[in-house]
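re: the backbone from monday

yeah here it is again, tokenized this time
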């Protein structure tokens, strides 16, 4: 994943930092997983998966 993208992306729910892992973004604070589909991050809270 591009490091510049990681620096600017934030959790849409809490605005916290995201961790890139296994083709998804993880918000540790909200305990949500945002999937990446066809190289596009799906950053919608209602489409996020609970951890």
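seq for it, each position gets an aa:
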């Amino acid at each position: 994943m591009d490091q510049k993208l990681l620096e600017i992306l934030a959790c849409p729910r809490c605005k916290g930092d995201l961790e890139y892992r296994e083709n998804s973004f993880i918000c540790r604070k909200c305990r949500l997983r945002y999937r990446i589909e066809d190289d596009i991050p799906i950053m919608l809270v209602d489409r996020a998966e609970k951890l």
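The first strand starts at residue 19 and ends at 20. The mean pLDDT is 93.
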